[in-house]
Design brief:
Length: 228
């Protein structure tokens, strides 16, 4: 006896089988969402509610969150907290009559399946981090004052220990001096010349150190320096 030919995918029967396969895949995705120990064979109430929200089964008019909770409690067993895939389809059938009023039971159920096919858990309900004006003000280093301002450079990067402690400066310059290290550069870049007045001062110092009296009419006012 020859085997019966399988139904083509574009036939009504084949289409229903394909939809159920996509439906079961969506069920498993939502069933394991947020639970690493879940097998995907059973779905908790919170995951059921998320599926109904993410897939827009809840429209806020014909179907509300209350309707979703009531159907879940009605379908699941009394001593369990989850529903199986078969119970999931029963729940969809219950809600389809409310969600798609004016359609036949079969049409309403197919429309319900279309809302779920190929869907997965989204980020609906996940709180996004938004910086409030207060937080922005408290974290803007350019507006810091006093000792807090000294802890960061112009780019907002922390200075580390130098920004928290007063490190001793042994350079020999007074605090706040902005030309440290420039003297040697100027002296080395210029030529120091000795004029007659300088020679006079040198000779006077030599005679005094030798215990001799030394007189000269020019005086000390002729001592001068010239730096080119």
């Amino acid at each position: 006896m020859a085997d019966k030919p399988s139904k083509p995918a574009n036939s009504p029967e084949g289409a229903v089988a394909g939809e159920l396969s996509a439906l079961e895949e969506a069920f498993r995705k939502f069933a394991v969402h947020g639970d690493t120990r879940a097998t995907g064979k059973e779905m908790h109430g919170k995951n059921w509610s998320k599926l109904c929200k993410d897939c827009q089964i809840i429209d806020g008019k014909n179907v509300t969150t209350t309707d979703v909770d009531i159907v879940f409690s009605k379908i699941k067993g009394k001593s369990v907290r989850t529903i199986t895939f078969e119970q999931f389809k029963e729940a969809l059938q219950e809600l389809s009559k409310k969600r798609f009023k004016g359609k036949s039971d079969e049409e309403a159920l197919q429309e319900m399946y279309k809302l779920i096919e190929g869907k997965g858990p989204g980020l609906t309900g996940v709180t996004k981090t938004v910086a409030s004006p207060t937080v922005s003000r408290l974290t803007d280093t350019s507006k810091f004052t006093g000792s807090h301002k000294e802890r960061f450079d112009a780019s907002g990067k922390g200075k580390g220990r130098a920004g928290r402690e007063d490190l001793v400066d042994n350079s020999g310059y007074v605090s706040g001096y902005k030309h440290a290290g420039t003297y040697d550069h100027k002296v080395q870049g210029n030529k120091l010349q000795m004029f007659p007045g300088m020679r006079l001062l040198r000779n006077m110092l030599l005679h005094v150190s030798a215990g001799k009296n030394y007189q000269h009419s020019t005086g000390l006012h002729e001592v001068c320096y010239k730096i080119n």
